[in-house]
Inverse folding.
């Protein structure tokens, strides 16, 4: 069951990303047509880097919250 959930979530995320990127390309068609290849590649890399950065920070925060809750529970149980 867990593999199916991960696979479904992955496919959903990829589909959502494709729809968002397609909308951006269609919405900014004039801008994309005016940019040269190097500028477009650099902009794409910057966007991907920002997304990875935000996701990794969110994951770290959630992991820190979970550890803090475990530590508080252990401290409260000790006399």
């Amino acid at each position: 069951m867990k593999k199916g959930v991960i696979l479904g979530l992955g496919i959903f995320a990829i589909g959502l990303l494709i729809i968002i990127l397609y909308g951006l390309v269609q919405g900014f068609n004039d801008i994309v047509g005016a940019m040269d290849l190097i500028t477009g590649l650099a902009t794409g890399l910057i966007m991907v880097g920002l997304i990875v950065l935000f996701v990794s920070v969110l994951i770290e925060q959630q992991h820190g919250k979970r550890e803090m809750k475990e530590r508080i529970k252990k401290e409260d149980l000790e006399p």
Notes: The CA atoms of residues 51 and 62 lie 17 Å apart. The mean pLDDT is 76. Helices lie at 2-27, 29-34, 37-77. The chain is about 90% helix and 0% strand.
